[in-house]
From TrEMBL:
InterPro entries: Creatin/AminoP/Spt16_N, Creatinase/aminopeptidase-like, Creatinase_N, Pept_M24, Pept_M24B, Peptidase_M24_C, X-Pro_aminopeptidase_P. Keywords: Aminopeptidase, Hydrolase, Metal-binding, Protease. Residues 321-533 form the Peptidase M24 domain. Residues 544-604 form the Peptidase M24 C-terminal domain. GO terms for molecular function: metal ion binding; metalloaminopeptidase activity. This is Aminopeptidase P family protein. Belongs to the peptidase M24B family. Residues 21-149 form the Creatinase N-terminal domain. The lineage of its organism: Bacteria, Pseudomonadati, Pseudomonadota, Alphaproteobacteria, Caulobacterales. It comes from Phenylobacterium deserti. GO terms for cellular component: cytoplasm. The keyword Hydrolase applies. Pfam families: Creatinase_N, Creatinase_N_2, Peptidase_M24, Peptidase_M24_C.
Length: 604
């Protein structure tokens, strides 16, 4: 099993560790300390050694923050984690607050007191976020102070896990579709055209993409932790822990890339004196901006120059994604067949469900890893958006309930992410109605055509309108970007209520995952991945329009669909999708599963 069901934290972490943190704060003369979820690379998913928020509070979600004062503390999470945080964190020690509405800045304005000093680690905060926090503290009469070493790290001490040292390996051209030298040349040319001499890269996904390398330092993502400096002439300096450098890596990188160690980075930044250097304030921490300014470089705040090219997959990457999803679709279909037959009477628990799905993916022989820990929520656990089964929380499926399974895989040719909600026994009419409303949103977002320049934020309402009409909604984004054998969550594009200025472009892969969650009862989510297609003329129209092609191939539970709530167009669309599932997946599965699939994909 690649996924375990042990809990790495528990609510006692706060009472165990906060006193140690406060002692370390006292040694630094601090009244408070900022504890973000992000690490030195602004990662969403963290190596164990960098999960400072989890160690301090017990909370293991992928987004959050805490503020620890000597006499009080607060933890901040978004709508995905409102249920999880209550289960994982000692509420007698931490006040639970909303990360989005007001967040840490609003808390500092009211919780900090005149004359207090609040510490922060400059390697863990983006400069823009840090500036907002400084303003908020100043309004309360307090001040923020950079502290090195981090008091939390001092408190963690010898118990802190070691930094990961997974081997860094080449990512072959048959999957990448473009030589690293060509990528570096065109990105470097764009830097030069903008008047910049170099860019400092700290995002692991950008480094993996630019140099056509992969690693294993970040859980569930084939990412190497490191830094790079890309020059306008296409040459580069790549900073990796020597223990991670495999024998064939130097030759793979070529003569234009100089391999160095992380200890060489401060001196390398000093070499950029008087140069115009691009650094992304959303990806790189304040430490880089301060180091470059101290070196006399002219810092240009701009988006990571690799982010947009990385997001727009080339033809080879799109072909790989189709192949990966066809393979994954067969594994998921075998799993759904098991759920629809044997599991209806054996009523497995969540751990059995997760283990079964993983075994089908493992049987492909191509699985490199999961793309995230599988979410399998039976009944009321399905209403916890980012729930993960554990030995303590494990729940058995029951007749008359719903099972939500959100999972994904990492293959050399692509990254997958799929959610299916399945009826166990006979669903209620309410379940069928709410499921169908979610399905209508998924179908609307899959078939939309839109002009160039359209952002994901402009499309988000399409996935919600059917729910809104019934006074319902969901508290998470509708779609996130997905990498090509990289992170399952990848920017800069997304589909959500939150404003996003990045236009959707051909080759971008995004998820389409509306949902509905009834706390204490059940959860519903339907998720497919889809990519943006090139603009095409519309019959009788005046402008070519972009659209989406769905990558994910697995049946949607027809037992949960209220046919009368679907329009004729929606029925045709669903039937066409299911026909494609049967065409692509049917030949890959065993005869008995194919016979079931014929029925599962029959016209609605």
């Amino acid at each position: 099993m690649r996924q375990t069901f042990d809990e790495s934290t528990d609510p006692s972490f706060g009472s165990q560790h906060v006193p140690l943190i406060r002692q370390a704060m006292s040694r630094h003369g601090l009244d408070g300390l900022l504890v973000p979820h992000e690490d030195e690379h602004q990662n969403e998913y963290l190596p164990a050694a960098n999960d400072r928020l989890g160690w301090a509070t017990g909370f293991t979600g992928s987004a959050g923050a805490a503020v620890i004062f000597q006499d009080k503390a607060a933890i901040f999470v978004d709508g995905r984690y409102t249920l999880q945080v209550r289960d994982q964190v000692d509420q007698g020690l931490f006040e639970i607050r909303d990360l989005v509405e007001g967040g840490v800045t609003a808390y500092l304005e009211t919780a900090a007191r005149t004359g207090q000093t609040i510490g922060y680690d400059p390697r863990l905060h983006s400069p823009d976020a840090l500036e907002r926090l400084k303003v908020a503290a100043a309004r309360a009469g307090a001040q923020l102070k950079p502290v090195t070493p981090n008091p939390l790290d001092e408190a963690w001490g010898m118990a802190r896990p070691s930094q990961p040292t997974a081997p860094v390996v080449p990512h072959p051209l048959q999957y990448a579709g473009e030589e690293s030298s060509a990528k570096r040349a065109r990105i470097g040319q764009a830097l030069g055209a903008s008047g910049a001499d170099a860019a400092v890269l700290t995002a692991p996904s950008s480094i993996a993409w630019l140099f056509n390398i992969r690693g294993g330092d970040v859980i569930r993502s084939p990412l190497p932790l490191g830094q790079a400096i890309l020059n306008a002439d296409g040459s580069a300096r790549l900073f990796l822990d020597p223990v991670k450098v495999t024998p064939d890596l130097p030759a793979w990188l070529g003569n234009e890339v100089r391999l160095e160690t992380p200890e060489d980075l401060p001196a390398a930044l000093k070499d950029l004196a008087s140069k115009r250097v691009v650094v992304d304030p959303g990806q790189s921490s304040a430490w880089y901006f301060e180091a470059l300014a101290d070196a006399g470089a002219l810092v240009v705040r701009s988006e990571d120059p690799c982010a947009l090219p990385r997001a727009c997959k080339n033809a080879v990457e799109i072909a790989g994604a189709r192949t990966a999803h066809a393979r994954d679709g067969a594994a998921v279909t075998r799993f759904l067949h098991w759920l629809a037959t044997e599991a209806q009477t054996s009523l497995p628990d969540e751990i059995e469900v997760v283990s079964k799905l993983e075994s089908f993916r493992e049987a492909t022989g191509a699985l490199k890893d999961l793309s995230f820990d599988t979410i399998a929520g039976a009944g009321s656990n399905g209403a916890i958006v980012h729930y993960r089964p554990t030995e303590r929380l494990n729940k058995r499926t029951q007749a008359g309930s719903l099972l939500l399974v959100d999972s994904g895989a990492q293959y050399l040719d692509g990254t997958t992410d799929i959610t299916r909600t399945v009826a166990i026994g006979e669903p209620t009419q309410e379940m069928r109605e709410r499921f169908t409303l979610v399905l209508k949103g998924n179908l609307a977002l899959a078939r939309v055509r839109f002009p160039a320049g359209t952002t994901g934020s402009a499309l988000d309402a399409l996935a919600r309108i059917a729910l809104w009409e019934r006074g319902l909604d969901f508290d998470h984004g509708t779609g996130h970007g997905v990498g090509s054998y990289l992170g399952v969550h990848e920017g800069p594009q997304r589909i959500s209520k939150a404003p996003n200025m990045v236009a959707l472009r051909p080759g971008m892969i995004v998820s389409n995952e509306p949902g509905y969650y009834k706390e204490g009862a059940y959860g519903i989510r339907i998720e497919n991945l889809q990519f943006v297609t090139a603009p095409e003329p519309v019959a009788g129209g005046e402008r070519p329009m972009l659209g989406f092609e769905t990558l994910t191939l697995a049946p949607i539970d027809r037992r949960l669909i209220d046919r009368e709530l679907l329009t004729p167009e929606e029925r045709r669309q669903l039937d066409a999708y299911h026909a494609r599932v049967l065409e692509v997946v049917g030949p890959q599965v065993e005869p008995d599963i194919r016979a079931w699939l014929v029925e599962a994909t029959a016209p609605i």
